[in-house]
Amino acid sequence: MPYDEKLANRIRERFAGLDNVEEKEMMGGLTFMYNNKMCVGIIKDELMCRIDPSIHEAAVGKPGCRTMDFTKRPMMGYIMIDETGMKSKKDFDYWINLSLDFNKKAKSSKKK
After folding, report:
1. Could you say which of 27, 53, 64, 89 has the lowest number of CB atoms within 10 Å?
2. Euclidean distance between CA atoms 30 and 98, whole angstroms
């Protein structure tokens, strides 16, 4: 499943000054790991963000944002943002910053 390469480049530019960033193809798209934890990603042409579950409901009230339901089950703490929710640099940075802030306290998944 292809993903939006322009969006991938926007994320790469935003993460350029950070150490310990890794790109992984997963979930049919591209995921950006930060400090060995899933942070943001792209599925088709949408931005996937891992955010603090305590602000999930407020986040999905914003334009262009919805709960991630990749497995047909709503996933609290994971949101999808379409183009309307991240057109401006300010909006794009808002979502990236939410993910980076949560990454500090997020648990990494156990390695198999």
Report:
1. 89
2. 19
The domain that contains 10 carries what CATH number?
3.90.1150.30
Amino acid at the residue 85: G
Give the distance from CA 107 to its chain's centroid: 15
Given a contact cutoff of 8 angstroms between Cβ atoms, the answer to whether 81 and 49 are in contact is yes
Please name which of 61, 38, 58, 42 lies closest in space to residue 50, comparing C-alpha atoms: 38
* Predicted confidence (pLDDT) per residue in 29-54, tens digit: 999 999 999 999 999 999 999 999 99
Q: Tell how many helices (H) and how many strands (E) occur in the chain.
A: 3, 6
Q: Residue 1: its pLDDT value, please?
A: 56
Residue with tokens 């300010």: 90
Instruction: Quote the crossing angle between the two packed helices 5-15 and 89-103, to the nearest 10°.
Output: 60
Strand, helix or coil for residue 24? strand
What range does the domain containing 92 cover?
5-103
Give the pLDDT score at 57.
Answer: 96
Give the 3-state secondary structure of residue 79. strand
